[in-house]
From TrEMBL, chain A:
Gene symbol of the encoding locus: ecfA1
Main location: membrane
Residues annotated as domain ABC transporter: 7-244
Protein family according to the UniProt entry: Belongs to the ABC transporter superfamily.
Protein name per the record: Energy-coupling factor transporter ATP-binding protein EcfA1
The organism's taxonomic lineage, starting at the top: Bacteria, Bacillati, Bacillota, Bacilli, Bacillales
Superkingdom per UniProt: Bacteria
Source species of the chain: Brevibacillus parabrevis
Automatic annotation (TrEMBL), chain B:
Keyword Transmembrane: yes
Domain of life: Bacteria
Record Pfam families: CbiQ
Name this protein carries in UniProt: Energy-coupling factor transporter transmembrane protein EcfT
Primary subcellular site in the record, as a coarse category: membrane
UniProt keyword annotations, A-Z: Cell membrane, Membrane, Transmembrane, Transmembrane helix
Compartments where located: Membrane
GO CC, one annotated term: plasma membrane
From TrEMBL, chain C:
Species: Brevibacillus parabrevis
SMART domains listed in its UniProt record: AAA
Main location: membrane
Top-rank taxon: Bacteria
Residue span(s) of domain ABC transporter: 6-248
Protein's name in the database: Energy-coupling factor transporter ATP-binding protein EcfA2
A matching Pfam family: ABC_tran
Alphabetically ordered keywords of this record: ATP-binding, Cell membrane, Membrane, Nucleotide-binding, Translocase, Transport
Amino acid sequence: MSMEPIIRVENVSFTYQVSQDQQIPVLQNISLEVYPGEYLAIIGHNGSGKSTLSKHLNGILTPKEGDVLVNGINTKEKARIHEVRSRVGMVFQHPDNQIVATIVEDDVAFGLENIGVGLEEMKERVDFALEAVGMSAFRHRPPHHLSGGQKQRIAIAGILAMKPQCLVLDEATSMLDSYGRQDILAVVRKLHGEGMTIVTVTHHMSEVAEADRVVVMEGGQIVLEGTPREVFAHQDRLRELHLDVPDASRIAALVHAELPAFAPDLIHNAEVVAEVGRLYVRQAEASGS
Amino acid sequence: MSAEFELTRNITIGQYLPTASVVHRLDPRFKLGAFAILIVAIAICNTYVGNLFALAVCLWLFQVSKIPLHYGISGIKPAIPFIIILAIMQLLFYGEIANGGTVYFQYGIISISSESIRLVIVSAMRFVEVIFLSSVLTLSTSTTELTHGMERLLGPLEKVKFPVHAFALIITIAIRFVPTFAMEMEKMMKAQASRGADFGTGEWWRIVQRTKDMFPIIIPLFNVALSRAEDLILAMEARCYMPGASRTRYTQYKAKGIDYAALGASVVISVVMLGIPW
Amino acid sequence: MTQPIVDVQKLSHVYMQGTPLSHVALNEVSLQVQAGECLAIIGHTGSGKSTLIQHFNGLIRPQSGKVIVNGMDVSQPKIDIRSLRRQVGLVFQNPEDQLFEKLVGDDVAYGPFKMGLPLEEVKNRVKWAMDLVGLNFQEMKDRPTYALSGGQKRKVALAGVLSLQPKVLVLDEPTAGLDPRSRLELLGRIRRLNREEGLTVIFVSHNMEEVSQLADRVYVMANGKAVCEGTPRQIFGNQELLREHHIGTPESVDILYRLRERGYDINPGAFLPEETACEILKLIQR
């Protein structure tokens, strides 16, 4: 790709220091680029290093070896960390643990206060961010009465207000029920449609199917990479890594095994339906002629 | 019995009662300032009539803030034992120190004089007034406004390197997490009770045992609090929070005429209260 | 029909009764669970599921209506509540939060120890419970709990409840927040407890894949009321019902409905991926 990446991860290794002489390697020589407008999914079972990698993308963690560059700024440059973090925003797993203020709109403004945005602009940005996640009606509410999905939308609004180029979701839907998750996915889909770069770390394969590119991690390394279609084609490999595939892929593979004409590389429900339609019509024609 | 574990559901910090009165609409900085002035005046005032006047002002405040008086009275109830103990101490021992007024009774260091009786009555009145005042304040001001107001009032302390922003943020976060931890505690009690734990049913003198019984709740609560704190720090850092860095403020308060009037009124009331010679 | 092991009759519950914040959590709910059954309770957040299951072991006593568990009437103030809580093991959401002992074995032993059992019996039960959840007793009992992974901690917590040797196991969102690997393993363990150990299992879940794989019967709640009940096939085969009560569906069911909407003759109750594949094959190979 000729485009300049927003985030460039170069040969990054990271270890957790457990005690003086014991270190646990978590990332091993990882390189990855995230391009503007891209929708990237990172998957892997717990302990594969995917969460640690995502925390490197905005300088919450800095590499032991290698570099992470955000728009050319090295995340190790302490003096410019504000620039990095306002460009790459991050939403975390627990809805309850990332809300700071006692009133919704105060919370959305928290990041803006930190980077010293003036009052008039702050008001505009808070309005915009709450509108973008559909939570304007809740702006004066205390957050603890909101549902998990609503809290996560507030957390996203708090990031959006900072006008980032890239939104990182670190298992942001894993604590939500299916409706909360659908809400968040709809918001993310809309933002991506408007040009936002999205990086999502998730266990939900139906979310992964929506991404442009998938990175599969195991043992601190990237072991598979490609479009969702390419990655989900490796069903056996994924099973070895203790990962799911979307039901659509599994069903397509099962049908394909019995009936080779049926395309095996389907990842969306709609594709399965279309494929059934294609073969059904052909069969009807065959029997008709 | 059915409400065995439901205690925490009722926790509200602050007890904001939104009646949209003029008192509710006051700028929290001015409101806090005015209440502070009144409370200082009450602390100084030691005359019967002055305190009666102050009591009248309190009742009037309930009236204008449209808060039913029983909210204030229910605030007094828990303080009654304390008021009584204080009154007895003052009644018995203060006469000796005060050496003024007529002595009615003397035995060793115990001395009851007209001075000590006045002090007992005035102290009790002060107590009631302070409770009434703080009730009106907390019932008419949300916790958010309270922290904002306090932060602004403490603002000048920043000149002497007092971390006002950090202090206000700590209080905000504490308030923000009260309901979360209340729910957490309820869940923890229920979960452990489901495994056969019992809390506080042992004899009261077996303090060690009863304390041990609480471990299955306290230890997990600490763990949960720690992991929440870690998460929160990450989330705050991800939104560019830097301890000690200068920040702008989203909520701005603009004082209106009524705010100055309230502050002025509190000064006038204080002067009158302290000026009454009886 | 035999006497149900859990019998709920017209149970109602109001939180903070008599205050402006009062809120009806349960409204005349009735439910019978037979011994050995595996029942899923589903419904939107706030539909009253959690309140209902907390009645099963007497954490909440009935305000009106009846709850009878294994012959014990929970509304009677004088019943032996400890015995009830031993018979009904309740596992809360994210139960790994409740571990408090330093070592795995000690934490699992907490319940039996509180029952005042002799040491040997406590040990046997801990071993038994740890085996059931797939934790090796010798290897794991002296491990510190804080060093375990999330999935392992959850298994320890489950063992801590199983060590009470309950007849009924009640779980609130048993696999929420786990990765696919731990989720599948835990589901397998729960299924085995139900099918092989004969435990009656009642679980609350938002995850419809999980419901479809585990439950014999599904009980649907909305706004504190029972909406309907049936086998997973009946429930997932009823699209109008699912839509009306905002119940999610397994992905496979979504595919089946889309096919049916296009006019194909397909059985929407065939929700396991293998069955869905069969249905599709039948359709295009006919």
